[in-house]
Structures are given as C-alpha cells and as structure tokens.
C-alpha cells in the first residue's frame, strides 16, 4: 500500500482574503498548526474546503502550496467531486501532476447515478491514475450509497484502497471489517461518531473540527490507539458540542468561526455562502466560547505507540 490510511487527516478549510482571493498566508498558518499537532495527512478540496466554489487553478495552487508546506512529512490528498467521468479523470490527473499522493473521491455530482453507473465512474478514474483512492461514502448528504456489494466490484481496482465511512451507521464499520478485512481501510468521516468508529476498528479519522482544534483531535486518536480509552473519552465528551457544529448545513461557517477563536483562521467564506449572523451566529459563538473556557489540559499524546 502506497499510502498509510491511518490517523487523523484534516479536511482543511480554504482560506480567503477580504477580497475573495486565496489567503495563502493564513492557509499556511493553519497547515503548520495541523502538522505541529501530529496529523497524519491533509485532505484538500472537500466540502469544508468549499470545493464547489473553487476554480480549477485555485485547486492546483492549493495542492502545490500544501505539498511545499508539508515537505514530505505527511501525504496530501485532493478531493475529486465532478459531474462527469471525463472531468473526474482530468481532475485526478491534475492532482497527481500537482504532487498529491492520494485522492478522496465522491460519486458523480448532480446526477443521481445508479449502482452500475457509480461503480463504472469510480473504476474509470482508478484505471486512469496511479494514485491511491479513498471512496467517500456519504449517502446522507450526497444521496448515493456505495454498498458493500459495490465495493466487491470496486476492490478489483488495486488502487481503490479506503473508504471515508459517513453513512452514520456505526455498525457499518464492523460489516466492512467482516467482509473485507484489511483490504478496505476505513477512515471515519463523521466527527460525532469518530471515537465510536475508531473503537469499532476504523483505521483513522477524516476530521472537521480539527481545523480549529488539531491537538485535541489528534490526542483522542492517539490515546484510544494506545488503549487509554478513559482519557480519550474525557476529551471527546468535552469536544462533542463543538463536533456537532460539523453535522450542520453551515458547517463551513461554523468551523471557520472556531478557527478564528483559536487563532488559525478567518471567517471569510466564498459566496453564495455568507458569514453567520443574528441568532444563528450568537448560538454558534456561545458553543465555541464555552468550549474555549473549558478546554482541557491534554496529556502528552505524541509517541504513545512507542511507549506501549
């Protein structure tokens, strides 16, 4: 396996200036905070990255800049969320040319593809790239489910290696393990089910609130991995009200406000998104403020695997 599907991989936000261009300075600040916390990879251009509003050239700039910032410390993945198979193949090729080491792939956008169409879409991209692929399975938000029977066919492609498991069905982790063993790595994709999924055998966590709270997120992963479940659980219980900001249509605005609170982001979003206002903003700020007031003191969580 060319990419280690494990640990915490932030689905990072895209930073914009007040003039709606890429804010690469703040973007670098955030990426360095993620690296300092000990993340295991960086995922670009997902929902949190406002991919649907990014120009192709902006995606390319983000990939190239991130590759420079991480300097080989962790793999950089680019999300592929396209309307056509042709477009998805081109996006995968561009990501590879720009230095990405892996792909996160959604089913076709806008058109609700059938099972056979979805399988052929993923296979066509897999057969036209050397990059390892993580299938993003999120039927709640994207209305297409990649079933275990579909994965039977997809796994004939050697470079389809992982799933971002976002079905919200915690027992699906066990189903996948029972059926595919280690052939299909599982990265949990729902912040509010993250610890539960890891304890059931998920290999890692594609995280959202990590964008604002990288150390707390990585600590939960590392502590549970080392068998220090109660310590992980205590942090997770503190974290849950903040994690719930991720399972909301305004997750981008919510998490960017949290990034402001921790000093590693701004709340600038790209239209049609607009910053939160009124009662909605007040409620989110109150959740963030409480989280900041009660932010836990973390144990030393790095290198735990070497100590057990």
Automatic annotation (TrEMBL):
- What GO MF annotations does this protein's record show? N-acetylneuraminate lyase activity
Cellular component (GO) terms are: cytosol
> Which SMART domains would you find in this protein's record?
DHDPS
Binding site residues for pyruvate: 206
- Which Pfam families did the record assign? DHDPS
Q: Which GO terms describe its biological process?
A: N-acetylneuraminate catabolic process
Q: Active site at which residues?
A: 136, 164
Write the record's keywords in alphabetical order, separated by commas: Lyase
Gene3D superfamilies tied to this protein: Aldolase class I
Which PANTHER family does this one have?
N-ACETYLNEURAMINATE LYASE
Its recorded name reads Dihydrodipicolinate synthase family protein
Specify the species: Pontimicrobium aquaticum
